[in-house]
Amino acid sequence: MGSKNKLKRFRENETFSNVYQPGREEVMNDNFALKGNWNKEVFKNNNPIVLELGCGKGEYSVELARRYPNINFIGVDIKGSRFWRGAKTAVEENIPNVVFLRTQIELIENCFATHEVDEIWITFPDPQIKYKRTKHRLTNEEFLARYKNILKEEGIINLKTDSEFMHGYTLGLLHGAGHKVLYANHNVYRNEGAPEMVTGIQTFYESQYLEQNKPITYIKFQLK
């Protein structure tokens, strides 16, 4: 994508009422006004809050919002030029229960209060296969600790990925730490009992993976 397109998307994001882009200092200093106030200030209801971390183009968040109007969805990504597509679609279709937050996932605890979130989706994250990149994997111990802080007591985390490495790494970590694995499958589209939320929604790249007969893995779990 050219830099002109990126700049155009950044400018358009600023006009969208469903896009929130706090400054890094504001978040780092724990001064983000929406922390603890997402339902009150943004959604104007008390419905459950579900995050999609690393939401990319926002396709998953938007489709979840279409299907589940009584749940509030927030797509989180640092790259605003990517989620521009999802934000624009939600504006054009007047989908009120999905918004987008531009921030680093490392700062997620500064954007949401303790027990403010009901569920988290991590869809097709970069598996960061090299050992020196372990600290960047979105299911490492440090990230799980961050998620635990913002999730409600019985909060759910979903990991959907085409990376067998990421699937195996996460499953091993969860079992080793004594977390509760509710569902796990290394080829979810071949499992008749797979949740509709998982197989009923596909991102653009996911469709391509499936055309190539690449297995899609899925884990649903709770943190102890």
Automatic annotation (TrEMBL):
Domain of life: Bacteria
One GO molecular-function entry: tRNA (guanine(46)-N7)-methyltransferase activity
Chain residues that bind S-adenosyl-L-methionine: E52, D77, D126
Alphabetical UniProt keywords: Methyltransferase, S-adenosyl-L-methionine, Transferase, tRNA processing
Recorded catalytic activity of this chain's protein: guanosine(46) in tRNA + S-adenosyl-L-methionine = N(7)-methylguanosine(46) in tRNA + S-adenosyl-L-homocysteine
HAMAP family: tRNA_methyltr_TrmB
Name this polypeptide is given: tRNA (guanine-N(7)-)-methyltransferase
Annotated source species: Paenimyroides ummariense
